[in-house]
Amino acid sequence: xxxxxxxxxxxxxxxxxxxxxxxxxxxxxxxxxxxxxxxxxxxxxxxxxxxxxxxxxxxxxxxxxxxxxxxxxxxxxxxxxxxxxxxxxxxxxxxxxxxxxxxxxxxxxxxxxxxxxxxxxxxxxxxxxxxxxxxxxxxxxxxxxxxxxxxxxxxxxxxxxxxxxxxxxxxxxxxxxxxxxxxxxxxxxxxxxxxxxxxxxxxxxxxxxxxxxxxxxxxxxxxxxxxxxxxxxxxxxxxxxxxxxxxxxxxxxxxxxxxxxxxxxxxxxxxxxxxxxxxxxxxxxxxxxxxxxxxxxxxxxxxxxxxxxxxxxxxxxxxxxxxxxxxxxxxxxxxxxxxxxxxxxxxxxxxxxxxxxxxxxxxxxxxxxxxxxxxxxxxxxxxxx
Length: 385
Ligand code: SF4
Prior knowledge:
It is built from 16 helices and 13 strands. By secondary structure, it is α/β, with parallel strands linked by helices. Helix 1 packs parallel to helix 12 and helix 2 (37-45) runs parallel beside helix 16 (361-369). The longest helix has 16 residues, at 231-246. The radius of gyration is 22 Å and the shape is globular. The relative contact order is 0.16. Bound molecules: iron/sulfur cluster. Iron/sulfur cluster (SF4) binds next to helix 15.
């Protein structure tokens, strides 16, 4: 398959792995955070950690959109469906994220809530057109990739003069989250999470370009390499990061030139800034309140803002005590550090958000990596009497 097979070629992957092994400096450890859930999935699926040098440590970051959604936001959507009789529309993975009182959107649907899975914001708009007598709320989540379609849906709703459509906006921003991680005590003071550089997200960067990462690469002296999602993309990005670290550089480099430019998609950015403005603070699961890290709907489009329309008040809710998602999202722990990984918490019965989407660190490790951590013990065969 053109443009896919080229980036999954095993012989080329081995050559890049050999190059990384040749270029890592003796005795030195390299820790790189892949911010994006798509990269987490690729690293687990293709066994990239096992291919590259043992001196390279990949740290999962908070780049899975359903993983970072705090319980309190899901509770708001559930309340809209169960208490206000609203049709709530959202993406499939969002429906399975655990919320308060043992509920999730899918369990609330089983209790009679009219909650519908959609593939796009436009689908939610269509449902609003088809149900003029009902209120329809699109529960919008995700990073900069999914924000332009939500903006477009709001502009379309305005053009069509729809009276029954609004958006519960939970869109978050990548660069502020990376800055927040670099400011966290674990990285700055405790040194428990050494970070030498970042693999920058693919889809997000198509929209925002590579320019937004330049400030913190310079200020925090951390290299960033933006990479595509295929295994060779990720391995090439690791090699580029190793080279930057070896030469003491901290620049933004772009491995994904086939899709990402320095300025990104200006048309999409203009549409987003027309409809949305920055929130002063937003709670992320695992990271707590992160300043200027999310978007809300501008007052000019207030009629399409579900938070105003239904007078919703956000209430933070702590995670399940057994769940280590917060530490995993900050790069402090790995999935296998969680006592209930793979036993009580599985993709069929997720206790924490990281087990829901295949971009979540726990789900990716459950699907592709869990057996590699188990020591193989060969027992000598005993002769039958
Ligand atoms: S295994 Fe489940 S409960 Fe534990 S950290 Fe992962 S998602 Fe959270």
